[in-house]
Amino acid sequence: MDRNAIFAKVKDLVVETLECDEARITEATRYDELGADSFDLLELVTAFEDEFGMTMDDDALQQIETIGDSVDAIVAAQ
After folding, report:
1. Can you give the pTM of this predicted structure?
2. If you average pLDDT over residues 35-64, what whole number do you get?
3. CA quadruple 68, 3, 10, 50: dihedral positive or negative?
4. Number of domains present in the structure of the chain
5. Which residues, in sequence order, are bridge partners of residue 30?
């Protein structure tokens, strides 16, 4: 799956999980700008792992601050 397809799916999952406006989501969008807390991030990471059939290690989780960070972690895990 290419980066654009991964971003589109990540965007869908973020919008669904955080119930935020899709127009606000770019790769540079920070999760804290969307009102996400650590529990939201854990829920999102679980959704990413389920959707993309991979696992993110704890180090990757601590590095995720933006939507683009999530896409990078998913690309790296594939």
Report:
1. 0.91
2. 88
3. negative
4. 1
5. 66
